[in-house]
Specification:
Chain lengths: 262, 435
């Protein structure tokens, strides 16, 4: 018993260190040590978001009575998280086959290390932009942080569950990569990143309800604006996507491992 | 970061790979090998299929885990906020009752579009990006959250006492370590306890007040709502005063003019001893006409008599009558046409005065219409604060939401740690490169 418990905690520690190691490696590979280095992890989404913010706030002061800065921030940052999670999964294993020389590093390690880093980076970007805007009085404080955090985690979870399928799929079929772009372009505008579901006519609302992404976005919005706006989301709906997604993704990754020849 | 204690080349562990310990040791070794290898030639991992030999700079990963001090810091960062929140929300925080009221502020002109077509047009308007103005709603909302309202509130009810009930816990009550005794801090504190939110689509504002006793919550909600109503009434008075004042002044001027004209006319009548100059001249003219007719008939009689009986003594008599009639006619004519005292001159004066009275009457009538319009306009702009939901007396404390707050703090802390970790990792490795 005791040895098992010991091995579990040791195993956990080792797991953490493996993931940590992979993350450091990823960081260094992608951003190097020159200039800003790892800061790019969140400067990249920040630049994009700030650009969009400026354009939108120049175009319109408010939309349907909702401040456009807060609207953009609460729509674009989650979108950044989603895109970073899913885009980074594409060809993830193909790009770093060499790590697999170490027999104790699994595809899962690589995958989750990458996901954690992207999640942390996007979170960081959100925090920095939010705090900056808040300190300049450009946005109201978050009304319900608990709901926003929950939504953020939910979106992360859903993003990971889709990303693991992407990772395995692109490992199986190289051509799958080509479909990722169209997939993103089709799903993202329909996700509610740029509008509130409540603004849509009723039939469109009913249709968009089926996109699990929308629920995450709406949850984040509900947390950001409180009861200033009307939001439409259900917690269970993205959850019933996450579970089968993860199952399929994990199983697929397992079989993908066999296809990778060092 | 270089650790001089660590060997620059890591030897593979000698343990048997079948045992758990050996497995872990091997895994640990491989990670180190990986990391050190990466230090030498990062590119090797992305392109080459050959693992680089060990050597070069060694990254000391284990240092963080070995040193107890840093471990404690990590422990505090990771668990302390969660533990504190469990202790506070689980055991210390006192229940707070929440009283809620909903209200809507609207003007009379806006309430017209309640029909099907109206709501459709409104919907079409919202689709095209037009937003309806919510100034009136915001004005009440802003007022309820303002310092002025807080000052009014503490005049009407003992706010400081209400939030300093003995059962209140040390963080939530007022004054506390976070909120001092000054008015400004009371204002800050009430920002926490009083919440007004505005539904952008429904147009309904919700007022939520927390207090340690149910009746306190109700009292504060009621009083705040009343203050909001007072403010709306003040606004209305201002609107009324501004819009109606000028119109009312105009009516006053019209009335004065009317009175003046009437007075002038009356004075004229008294002076000239004549009710109506026109009427008088008509009477005189009629008199003249009568006299004239009589004169003509008398003359006719004379010529008749002169033809029949020229010596009739009556003829002389009749001549006398004609002369008298002529004299009368001349007198009556003089009454009208005499340059100094004749009616003709008075008639001019009289007509001028009656015209002036006529004009005064007309301008008074139009001023009255303008006043009526101003009143209607003011009524249309009138604001109404309508209570959609009356303040309720809560019978169960729903605040603080303990589990939710704990979950929020733990979740937020996790995110925060993640960010800190990213920074730590980045800065560490960045520094390693520089060194």
């Amino acid at each position: 018993m005791s040895t098992q418990a010991l091995s579990f905690t040791r195993g956990l520690k080792v797991q953490i260190r493996v993931i940590y190691g992979i993350m450091v490696r990823d960081l260094m590979l992608r951003y190097g040590r020159d200039n800003l280095g790892f800061l790019w992890v969140f400067i990249e989404p920040m630049l994009l978001c700030i650009g969009v913010l400026i354009i939108y706030s120049l175009l319109r002061g408010d939309e349907h009575g909702v401040a456009v800065v807060a609207l953009t921030l609460s729509g674009y940052m989650p979108l950044t998280l989603w895109r970073h999670l899913t885009n980074n999964a594409v060809n993830l294993y193909r790009r770093s086959t060499s790590v697999l020389y170490h027999r104790f590093i699994t595809l899962y390690d690589m995958f989750f290390a990458r996901m954690i880093m992207e999640f942390a980076g996007s979170t960081c970007a959100f925090l920095v932009i939010y705090l900056t805007l808040l300190s300049f009085g450009l946005t109201e404080p978050i009304r319900d942080p608990g709901l926003l955090i929950a939504g953020w985690f939910f979106l992360g979870l859903y993003g990971v569950s889709v990303a693991i399928i992407f990772a395995a799929m692109t490992e199986y079929w190289e051509v799958a990569e080509k479909f990722m772009g169209p997939f993103q372009y089709l799903t993202v505008p329909l996700s509610g990143a740029f509008f509130l579901v409540d603004w849509l006519p009723r039939p469109a609302q009913d249709a968009i309800w089926f996109n699990p992404l929308t629920h995450c976005f709406e949850m984040i919005r509900a947390g950001y604006f409180g009861d200033e706006i009307v939001t439409h989301y259900d917690l269970w709906y993205p959850a019933i996507w996450v579970i089968p997604n993860l199952y399929i993704g994990l199983r697929w990754t397992q079989s993908a491992r066999a296809r990778i020849h060092l | 970061m270089l650790d001089p204690n660590l060997p620059h080349v890591i030897k593979p562990p000698s343990q048997d790979l079948q045992t758990v310990r050996g497995l872990i040791a091997h895994r640990l070794w491989s990670v180190r090998q990986l990391l050190t290898g990466r230090q030498v030639q990062p590119a090797a991992f992305s392109s080459g299929h050959e693992l680089q030999p060990l050597g070069g700079v060694t990254v000391d990963l284990s240092a963080a885990h070995r040193s107890g001090g840093r471990g404690r810091v990590i422990f505090f960062l990771a668990f302390l906020p969660g533990l504190l929140s469990i202790v506070y929300f689980g055991f210390l925080a006192t229940d707070r009752y929440v009283s809620e009221a909903k209200f809507i502020v609207k003007t009379a002109s806006k309430s017209a579009d309640s029909g099907g077509l109206g709501s459709f047009l409104k919907f079409a308007g919202s689709m095209s990006g037009m937003s309806r103005s919510q100034d009136d709603n915001y004005s009440v909302q802003e007022y309820i959250k303002s310092r002025a309202a807080v000052a009014e509130l503490s005049k009407k009810i003992p706010v400081r006492e209400i939030y300093n009930r003995p059962e209140a816990d040390f963080i939530a009550h007022y004054p506390s370590i976070f909120f001092g005794k000054s008015e400004e801090r009371l204002y800050d504190y009430l920002q926490w306890m009083v919440n007004v939110s505005f539904g952008n689509t429904s147009g309904i504002a919700t007022l939520r007040v927390q207090a340690f006793r149910a009746e306190d919550a109700l009292l504060v909600t009621k009083t705040l709502l009343e203050l909001g109503e007072d403010m709306v009434n003040r606004l209305n008075e201002r609107i009324n005063a501004d819009a109606i004042r000028t119109a009312a002044e105009e009516v006053g001027r019209g009335e004065q003019r009317m009175i003046d004209a009437q007075m002038a006319l009356t004075e004229f009548r008294n002076r000239e001893l004549m009710v109506d100059a026109i009427q008088s001249s008509v009477v005189i003219t009629e008199v003249i006409a009568g006299l004239d007719a009589e004169r003509i008939s008398t003359q006719a009689q004379i010529s008749q008599l002169a033809a029949a009986a020229p010596d009739n003594p009556q003829i002389k008599l009749l001549y006398g009558k004609v002369n008298a009639l002529n004299g009368q006619i001349a007198d009556q004519r003089a009454l009208i046409a005499e340059p100094s005292t004749g009616i003709a001159k008075k008639l001019g004066e009289f007509e001028r005065l009656s015209l002036m009275r006529e004009f005064a009457k007309m301008s008074l009538a139009s001023a009255n219409t303008a006043l009526d319009n101003a009143r209607t306009e003011a009524r249309r702009q009138q604001l109404y604060l309508e209570r959609v939901v009356e303040p309720n007396l809560p019978d169960f404390p729903i605040s603080p939401q303990r589990l939710r707050m704990i979950a929020t703090i733990i979740g937020g802390n996790a995110l925060f740690l993640l960010v800190i970790w990213l920074f730590y990792m980045g800065v560490r490795e960045h520094g390693a490169g520089a060194g």
